[in-house]
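Support request, please re-run this one:
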Amino acid sequence: MKLTQYSNYALRSLQFAALRSPDLCRVDDVAAAHGISRAHIMKVVHEMGQAGFLETVRGRGGGFRLARQPETITVGEVLRVTEGPFELVECFNAATNSCPLIGICRLSRAIGEAMAAFIAVLDDVTIADIAANKKSLLDRLEVAAADRQSLV
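Re-run finished. Output below.
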């Protein structure tokens, strides 16, 4: 299984907000820190706001911050929003399934169990967990941004 870049950007944005909490973060700061397109981060921040993970503040001096405590937001919860339904094989979607083996296929059952185990692990990881080594993360982001800037 491979997660989308969108999920990666969402998790990076939430982690960044946790690192800067309780201060507001700017889209430009996340984009610069990670070398990601501003447009991508804007889209992510908007959806994370709609999903209740981020509070967004418009206007001059605006930005975003976590809408909930980082201990209450799990990586699994975020992935359910950013990845949508996890349909690894066609039989996971009853509306589009054309497999005649539905209900008796041991492969789809095993894949379903594996997916459930994958998400269960990520339901035990919070945004607080992925931001716990705050100093190391901020130091690394600073170095990475400086390296990118020196290439310009």
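The mean pLDDT is 91. The first strand starts at residue 54 and ends at 57.
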